[in-house]
Amino acid sequence: MRPADNINDLIKKLQLKASAALDTRVHDKISAALAESEKTKSVHAEPTIWRRTMKRSTTRIAAAVLMIIAVFIGICHFGGPDVAWAEVAQRLEDIKTVAYKITADIEGMSGGPEGHATHITLDVKHSYEQNAVRVDSSYQVPGGTTKTHTYGLFEDRIVVTLIPSQRKYSEVTISDERMKKRQEETGDPVTLLNAMLEHDYAELGRKEINGVMASGIEVSDPKLSAKMGSFISGTMFDETIVQLWVDEQNKLPIRIDATGSSHDGQASMEVVYDGFQWDIPIAPALLKPEIPNDYELLAQGNWDTGNEGEEIIDVLRLFVEFADGKYPESLKLMTVAKAIAPALRKKFPLGPPLQDKEFLARLMKVDMVGMTYATLEKDGKDPAYYGDKVSIESPDAVLFRWKIDDGTYRVVFGDLRTEDVSAEKLAELENLQR
Amino acid sequence: MLEDKLLIWKFNRGDRGALRGIYEKYKDDLVTLAAALSTDVSSAEDVVHDVFVSFIQSSGKFRLTGSLKGYLATCVANNARNRNKSKRRRNDAVPDETNAAGADSINPEFSAVFSEELKQLSQALGRLPYEQREVLILHSYSGMKFKAIAKQQDVSINTAQGRYRYALDKLRSMLNGEARR
């Protein structure tokens, strides 16, 4: 007689392997179902996607607008070693409002005085319920402080920035298409956590922060930054390191520390996000701008999609007009801003021509250049930029290129001439300058 | 467990990699479970295929309350049970005791991959009444509790435990060569 245990042991030894045919069938179904799901979402779930996109994008877009006034900083990352990641993500998904404070010290910021750090504080109030965000900013440099109030109005697809000291305001409208495209790189906590989980991170262990036990991780993977949009320093600086600390009890972020630097070491920043308050009541009136009648429209911009490459060419054109055709080494925001700022100061010693709306709109494109390039990467347009070795003095060298369709690239040469060429021809051109 | 939660979290966001990860992680166990229940590899693979097709469709709204493995095992058991019922109906109510889904109908490839001892076991399993075989496999192979199995079979826990004991006794008899006497 076999004892029951022996039979149970035998049963546990039963083990078959799924056949290759089953693998193929299931994988095909997965591909088909997800493709169908994407199609269905785009056709039927437009309002939902739109709503989610708008919800998740405002803070970052607000950040982009602020850059024209000074320079805006932003970094977010989420995770933690002793924290159940899925729980953190789930908690964040359910969040309806959040308020937090960002403090940043930036050295080498364009427009800032030499040898001095610019101290920035941002009070952010974000309501997912109301699809709106408000950022109250203070830019402190030796000799003065500039305060601005930025409102991201999701439903109206507009971002408004008020500058009380100058009695001026600016507006940026964002196209539906642009908002959709940025869904995966919006910089919101859930998207960031998702992106972070896909990359390598180092566990920082546990530590007490303001009497709360927290778990932390660190990410410095450069690939991460491309997915994170402009609110993340990845599109501002060449190198960034981000540490995230999560409260072990409530499974929500408690503090974020970040550092960023440009390749040449001339620009750097240190940023802290803290003072998180989750699900606090935010009065609707707080999130709606009241523009006094005597405020003058400083600049008006439009953030659209599909013409990212041309937008970058517009930015590069500034370098031909004002910087003798010496292009920035990279298309990271801080590198571009730092490269163009001395030339602009020389050209406009009394300050930017605030009356020239068209010119200010062009400057807004500088604010967004890092994001714009990241969008080309994300969309699989295979962009490449060679500003580190090409200037207007090498008019036939490839300065910048991106794919405009399957077999064709648009090439921008050193003199900003453009030409559409085949992939083979592009390879020849790029080989010549290696 | 945490990894499963992560996979589900990503799965609900339409992450194709997560879905493939779930399939790769559990496919062999599920095929084995389905084969042990249906005693037929090709039917077993159909069961697993159908389960994953349904699972895929739950993307975006799936909520995991227990273990993912347990959930998938339950789905496999339900699907296999439905197929067994259909088969019985097609066979025009052949008494379950004599249906002997195992010995004669067992797919050769199912037996071929096992050692002689396991081959005898798989053949003996095929001779058990379906409900008894199901309790035994779900409890012994998938580690499911009698309470959960009873709920699935819509019987009392005592009945489920009784079926388990009957199954063990019969298997023991068959494996000792007593069943045919």
Descriptive notes:
The complex is a heterodimer of chains A (434) and B (181). Chain A has helices spanning 4-13, 20-44, 46-66, 85-93, 176-181, 189-197, 222-226, 308-322, 333-347, 357-367, 369-378, 423-432; strands at residues 97-107, 117-127, 132-141, 144-153, 158-163, 168-174, 202-209, 212-219, 239-247, 253-261, 268-278, 296-303, 384-385, 398-405, 408-413, 418-422. Helices cover 34% and strands 30% of the residues of chain A. In chain A, strands 7-8-9-10-11-1-2-3-4-5-6-12 form a twelve-stranded mixed beta sheet. Chain A has a four-stranded antiparallel beta sheet with strand order 13-14-15-16, with helices on one face. Chain A is built from twelve helices and 16 strands. With 434 residues, chain A is α+β, with helices and mostly antiparallel strands. Chain A has two domains: 47-287, outer membrane lipoprotein receptor (LolB), chain A; 306-432, no CATH class. Chain B is mainly α and 181 residues long. Chain B has one domain: PhyR, sigma-like (SL) domain (Butyryl-CoA Dehydrogenase, subunit A, domain 3, Up-down Bundle). In chain B, 73% of the residues lie in helices and 0% in strands. Chain B has ten helices and no strands. In chain B, helix 1 packs across helix 2 (16-38) and helix 2 crosses helix 4. Chain B is globular. The chains are: A alpha+beta (434), B mainly alpha (181).
